[in-house]
Amino acid sequence: MLTQQQIEEILAKKPEARVTSIFIRTATAEEEVWGLVDGEEGWLLLEDDEDDTDVFTVFPKAEFAEIFKEKGGFEEFNVEVLDLAEFLEWLATLKRTR
User: Domains of the chain: which residue ranges?
Assistant: First the structure.
């Protein structure tokens, strides 16, 4: 589990490439990603108004998903883990269906 200080240090890192690097290193080391799920809709998808696509939000640690849930107003969602191999397989399926 990350401390509050560790979370703040990671969130303060710029540019986004460093944050992406942290995500990749952590997700591969832990072999999991975290997301928000509700009982009716499934995994949280956000709309990207710029290019009219859906964005699947995933996080390298449960703590980041909790922060996003609280600050984003997604109280009806639960933080859940997704096996990294399943996640990557799901992404490959999405890419093939596009």
Answer: 4-97
